[in-house]
Amino acid sequence: MTTALNAVEINLSAAIAAVANNDPLILTTSSSGQPERDELPFGPFNPLEHRTFETGLREWVAEQTPLQLGYVEQLYTFGDRGRHKTVEDRGLHVVSVGYLALTRISENGSEQLRKSGARWRNWYSFLPWEDWRGGKPAMIDEEIRPALQEWAEANALPSRLSRFRMAFGDENIAWDEERVLERYELLYEAGLIEEAIRDGRADRTPARCLPGLAMSFDHRRILATAISRLRAKLKYRPVVFELMPPAFTLTALQETVEAISGRHLHKQNFRRLVETTELVEPTGAEQIQARGRPAALYQFRHNVLEERSVAGLRVGNRS
């Protein structure tokens, strides 16, 4: 028997990623309650209408945006209480099933996208401490490290200090770009981001929060999970080509990998890596450039999936 005490609603949320102009993008819609607040496309799972969770997700995305999803994979199930306040006020406990989806941006669909109210946002506007392409973000040493140090030492809990060092690194521990979710959860627990204040987990004013746009519900948490998964998957599956056009230059491929990983990569080392993995092959065509010689165009070599089970760009962790 379902009562107000054990009623559960299952929400399906999509972190839809693309890359354009060397920046990683996430598709967001406007919150009905707070139009200025971004949220991921989402909707409830209806077991009478949706045969599977993924079927339901695709239907919600098609209803809220002009996109037809291609590559989709389930991320994680989020069931913590307190992160869906508006729904829980009705006595429901919300379970969010997050998905990662990859797509290419089409110029033809930009007008339809605008009319739908959806928009592409740079995902580093939500998680600015994750973008190391220009070197370590100043905010890590100027804001995050002192605040987390104070929080970790407040109750003399060694576990907090250890988590802080593992997540953000120090002189003995390298920054690991895959720990996106761990860093977000640590900042949430320390009360340094707006969602923690909204959920009643921290007693401070929004003005004292770290830079970075908040999202509705637990959607920034789902975004952090999606980035973690995609950064890790780059190294063992050729998912990056889901974001590339059919033909591309090696420079464009490198810039896409850099955008996702949040790291600057050495050009010659990257090209040697691409050659070693044999993930691409030349098309025989060239791209005319504004300056310099024309650049050779390449395409993904699909046969690689039949040749070996692990096929990715193992760029390694930052040292």
Automatic annotation (TrEMBL):
Cited InterPro entries: NMN_biosyn, NUDIX_hydrolase-like_dom_sf, WH-like_DNA-bd_sf, WH_DNA-bd_sf, WHD_NrtR
Domain NrtR DNA-binding winged helix: 240-300
Pfam families hit by this protein: WHD_NrtR
Record's protein name: NrtR DNA-binding winged helix domain-containing protein
Species whose genome carries this gene: Phyllobacterium ifriqiyense
